[in-house]
Specification:
Layout lengths: L1 H21 L7 E13 L4 E10 L2 E6 L4 E7 L4 E4 L1 E3 L11 H6 L3 E6 L7 H11 L4 E4 L1 E2 H7 L9 H4 L5 H16 L4 E5 L8 H14 L2 E5 L11 H15 L3 E3 L2 H4 L4 H13 L4 E5 L4 E5 L9 H5 L6 E3 L8 H8 L6 E5 L3 H9 L3 E3 L14 H16 L5 H16 L20 E4 L22 E4 L2 E5 L2 E2 L14
Parallel strand pairs: 1-4, 1-5, 6-7, 7-8, 9-10, 10-11, 11-12, 12-13, 13-17
Antiparallel strand pairs: 1-2, 2-3, 5-18, 14-16, 15-16, 18-19, 19-20, 20-21
Length: 488
């Protein structure tokens, strides 16, 4: 009965939307941009039909079956018109060139740095607003960054620093800096627990309490990776769920595919069970069979082969593409600089299980740097997701895919950042963050060997009504991106 009523509501809303707006089309309104004849997807109302979209002043003004006029008229027949993709797990700097090139051409309109973030949140927003950005952007306040500044271990520092416990005075500083970051507009608290193994359970609990107090989510790279008991990914998921239940905080699990590659079935059952019993929890995954991180990080501290059930040959050096050996692993890890590696260890079955869950969204966890280096997930995540799991495998419908690439991220963020209520939708009043894609041609070109390659089959991308990709060509001088600030 509940499902029937929900579908009836969606039918009435969509029907009334088209009927009430069709009267506008009889006027001589000329929109800034009209998108005609495309298959329009609105994951909020589950609207999926051929329609025309009218855009003015950066906002969707009309969705109708009636003809529309615009200064720019796009023929979208045979194409899909969907909300712009929201990358909830990347670096905030990827909203700007040159990294934004690969995000925009992959259909991304908003980037959110939820894995970690700066300490001076307000200053970061002020700087980027002054410089301008191609894409919308937002950030958490980063637990890893705070601890590094306080001398409690660097992300890619030595094992000794990572194992130093915070004093009560330092914990108080961590909480105060986190509070200030939220008040300056951070849209969440970003945890990197595996990278900071000296973080105590008490400290995590207090940070969850703080996040709950300000109604922002806790975005967590969980404490343990892989299947090795007793410190496996399942135990790490237990920690997140327990803290969310005890504090009332919202929680989000970063890249569940790479932290739980072998335990994914039980992990998804735990997350869905918690959700069914009232815990506000979600997760993301990227559609690649390899992860990526720094060789000097805690991921590769002693015992990493057993924890991850892999060996040296599964590690690929980003700069050269070489597969590592015991000798080269030791040499690079001890060379005094940060060496990034791609880690081949995620089964395809893990990705299928993750994306089959209604609470798992898509996120890249990557970007391409100025030298054109990085993991291909920084350039081709969304095109690859659509090609593999919608076009080829049929695991998801286009509407279900639009939900995972935009709407779920908007829902996760909108309590902390009210502006996200206008994103992830194709409906009147929503921001005109829109991607137009070709179902038959969409594909990623980025590879592990050559990651800095733009995706194909995405001819148009709009950010706040401005075409940042126009007929397949990037408008790299455009700066329509806006800050996504929290409002605690």
């Amino acid at each position: 009965m509940i499902d029937f009523l929900r579908k009836l509501y969606v039918y009435l809303v969509c029907g009334s939307l088209l009927v009430s707006l069709s009267s506008w089309a009889t006027t001589d309104i000329i929109f800034d941009t009209v998108i005609n004849g495309g298959r329009v997807l609105d994951p909020e109302t589950e609207f999926d039909a051929l329609a025309n979209v009218g855009i003015s002043n950066g906002v969707i003004q009309q969705v109708t079956t009636e003809p529309l006029k615009g200064k720019l008229a796009i023929d979208a027949q045979g194409l899909i018109v969907a909300p712009g993709f929201i990358d909830i797990l990347t670096q905030v700097e990827s909203a700007q060139m040159p990294s934004a090139r690969y995000k925009a051409t992959d259909g991304v309109t908003t980037v959110l740095s939820m894995h970690n973030g700066p300490i001076e949140v307000g200053a970061m927003y002020d700087r980027m607003e002054k410089e301008g950005a191609l894409l919308n952007y937002g950030t958490t306040i980063g637990q890893m960054t705070i601890r590094s500044v306080l001398g409690l271990g660097d992300f890619a520092g030595g094992e000794e620093g990572r194992n130093t416990l915070a004093t009560p005075e330092q914990v108080a500083q961590i909480l105060e800096i986190t509070k200030r970051g939220i008040q300056e507009g951070a849209v969440g608290v970003g945890f990197g627990l595996q990278y900071t193994p000296n973080t105590t359970e008490e400290e995590v609990f207090q940070l969850f309490q703080l996040a709950a107090m300000f109604d922002v989510a806790s975005h967590v790279h969980i404490r343990y990776l892989g299947p090795q008991r007793p410190t496996n990914s399942v135990k790490a998921i237990h920690e997140v769920i327990a803290n969310a239940v005890a504090t009332g905080a919202s929680a989000h699990i970063a890249h569940v595919n790479s932290t739980s590659p072998k335990d994914i079935n039980l992990v998804i059952r735990l997350l869905e069970g918690a959700k069914a019993h009232g815990v506000d929890i979600s997760a993301d995954a990227y559609p690649w069979g390899a992860g990526g991180t720094a060789l000097e990080s805690a991921v590769f501290d002693k015992g990493w082969q057993d924890r991850m059930a892999i060996d040296y040959s599964d590690l690929e050096l980003v700069t050269t593409g070489e597969r590592l050996t015991e000798e080269s692993f030791s040499r690079y890890r001890g060379d005094g600089k940060t060496d990034w590696v791609i880690v081949h260890f995620i089964p395809e079955s893990t990705l299928v299980r993750a994306y089959s869950s209604p609470l798992v969204m898509v996120a890249s966890d990557g970007s391409i740097n100025a030298e054109g280096k990085g993991h291909p997930r920084g350039a081709g995540t969304y095109a690859r997701f659509f090609r593999r799991y919608v076009v080829e495998d049929g695991l998801l419908t286009p509407l279900e895919a639009a939900r995972k690439t935009s709407y779920l991220a908007a829902l996760r963020m909108q309590k902390a950042a009210p502006s996200m209520r206008r994103k992830g939708r194709i409906s009147v009043g929503a921001d005109a963050d829109i991607v137009i894609l070709d179902y038959d041609k969409i594909r990623e070109r980025a590879t592990y060997a050559e990651p800095a390659q733009t995706s194909e089959g995405i001819p148009w991308v709009f950010v706040n009504g401005v075409a940042v990709v126009e007929n397949g060509k990037l408008n790299e001088n455009a700066k329509p991106g806006r800050a996504i600030r929290g409002a605690p």
